[in-house]
């Protein structure tokens, strides 16, 4: 099933080219997803936004409109780089399964609305989940291909580099400072909750990597297969409830990032 995919996972995107993982930028990313959907359906004269939406999605749509009107077409990073300079056509489309979308919404609500945190370290951690997927694919395909290992190593590398830069909410930073010491990989501490956030940002990250269109399409299929694996094991990999944030960070001795 998996053919070899040549991709330079070592090419990392600087912080000045990324949007941090704040409530506002989560909404921006979802707005971009909808924009891609509208472009795809434009030939049939149908808009992705014409479909009935759940109450949670409707709420996000309202906020998307508000943010887009406020920012206009000149959305720029602090360094002055226009976000719209990246062609929408080049962005890889990663369709996150509906149950995992709900997981992302619950994750956001637990942390930003209820002041809760994921208790660390997580079991299984990101490394463990990637290893389980490798075993799953090897058993299903009857062999272990180079491309699977390469993609998983790439995901691990991107997660370790992206976590502190764009995947954490502000309220999680004190916990990160306590949990991740020098020379400790975040993929050995964090689990599925934060790994799933990476897939929200991957289209933006991969837009800056030099990948041929055909290779990009194959990579998209592999990433979707991994998401289906997460969905299949959702009850095992993800927490159903988070712990009280004040108790987790209590007595840490480090200042909070307000």
Automatic annotation (TrEMBL):
GO cellular component: a single term: histone acetyltransferase complex
What keywords are annotated for this sequence in UniProt?
Answer: Chromatin regulator, Nucleus, Transcription, Transcription regulation
Q: Where is the MRG domain?
A: 73-243
Q: Where is this region: Disordered?
A: 29-79
Skewed-composition ranges (Basic and acidic residues): 29-42, 54-66
Example GO biological process term? Answer: chromatin organization
Q: What is this protein called?
A: MRG domain-containing protein
What lineage does UniProt assign to this protein's organism? Eukaryota, Viridiplantae, Streptophyta, Embryophyta, Tracheophyta
